[in-house]
Design a protein that fits this description.
By secondary structure, the chain is mostly helical. The protein has one domain. Helix content is about 75%, strand content about 0%. The protein is built from six helices and no strands. Helix 2 packs parallel to helix 4.
Length: about 100
């Protein structure tokens, strides 16, 4: 997937989540909907790769932006990372 399209998917998900959070705080969106959006956003981040996973990890501690239950959903990115084979790491280190 091209970099521009990855960034677009990330930003669309982020803005959707931010907008729903605003509506939740105004009592116009249900908690269940916001949790579902957070799960979808986390899933999208996991598919986009390590750079976006790092952004998601940063967002997971932003209690000023999101309610606690959204941050808890994003915190799954902190401990469920995809393992990288050692051969890949070794080759990268030897090349550098």
């Amino acid at each position: 997937m091209q970099t521009v399209f990855r960034a677009k998917r990330f930003l669309v998900g982020l803005f959707r989540l931010l907008f729903a959070t605003k509506r939740y705080r105004e009592s116009r969106t249900s908690k269940e909907l916001l949790i579902e959006l957070a799960r979808n956003f986390r899933s999208t981040i996991e598919k986009l790769g390590p750079t976006y996973t790092k952004f998601g990890q940063i967002l997971s501690v932003r209690y000023d932006l999101f309610p606690e239950f959204v941050c808890r959903e994003l915190q799954h990115l902190l401990d469920r990372g995809e393992e990288i084979p050692f051969s890949y790491v070794k080759r990268a280190l030897e090349e550098s």
